[in-house]
Fold this sequence. Notes:
By secondary structure, the chain is mainly β. The protein folds into 3 domains: 3-95, Jelly Rolls (Sandwich); 106-221, Galactose-binding domain-like (Jelly Rolls, Sandwich); 285-319. The protein has one helix at residues 288-318, and strands spanning 3-9, 16-24, 30-37, 44-52, 62-72, 76-82, 91-95, 106-108, 113-119, 124-145, 151-163, 169-182, 187-204, 212-221. A hairpin with a 5-residue loop joins strand 11 and strand 12.
Amino acid sequence: KCCTKLILKNPDSLPINNISLSIKNAEVSKQATLLGSDDQENWFALKEKFVLQTIDNPDNTSVVKIVDFPLSNYTFYKLEIDDSSSAPLNILGAGYYEQLTQEGGYTAIPDLKIETTDSSQSKQTFIKINLDTIRTIDRIEMAMTGQPYFLRRASLYSLQYSKNKRGDLESYLQWEYDIELSSKQATILDVNALRSKQLTVIINNEDNPPLQLKTAQLLQRKRYLVAWLKKGDDYVLKTGAVDMVAPRYDLANFQDNIPSELKEVKLGEFVFFNKKNKETSTTIFTNKMIIWVAIILVVALLGFMSVKLIRETNAGRTE
């Protein structure tokens, strides 16, 4: 058997970029292809050989899978799911969201402290960008000046930490990307959720005069959460820990019932919680003053006993 073929009609030829499938749970992965047509005779490629991952919803017997593809306005869409290696999927329903999925905006990370150093010996310029704490960085924008025409190669490094054999944290510079700086345009680099509190850009000047940094921005992608909130209640959103497990709520199973236009709730001030060292009570064995006094007393006692022993030995010889 070749495949399961599913044809969807877009009667008004609206521009869409997604199809949602309601599928019965199945521990199987399937390869699929999506085609588009206006007459159901001539089909054109939209998305080829993508994978529908294991379909497993622990809270319900079915799950909604969303297939994203380039924006198009075909009248018909045909989804072909390869069934050559296993039985077909049980597809309960299919449709599309009229509200287009779009790339989210960005927010500039504030309070950057930038240090620039030129080295004539290594023929390099070092740009160090310091942040107030470890943050997630999604995009870097830089513009250089100093020469009318330039094209320089540079490398981006991030400050990272690892534990040594003794369990102590040690910092090191991790190479991330090689980039180009050009007089034609500003440099825009997408770094895909890079976490660090310090970035370093090393520019190779070769025999050219050093460049000056005109502008620099670190940007963070806007991320949205959908939740059912009650008016008048206070809510706390915890974030920042890398090992924090994402919660699993029932709302994820009712995406079709969520309105397309939702009110946006503004967050309050962020509060940073640092791990405090455990307070240890002072004891006889940890108080340095008591330890030094004890050492002096022991030395004095040993000295007194030594002198007494020498005197007694000399007195015995005299008799």
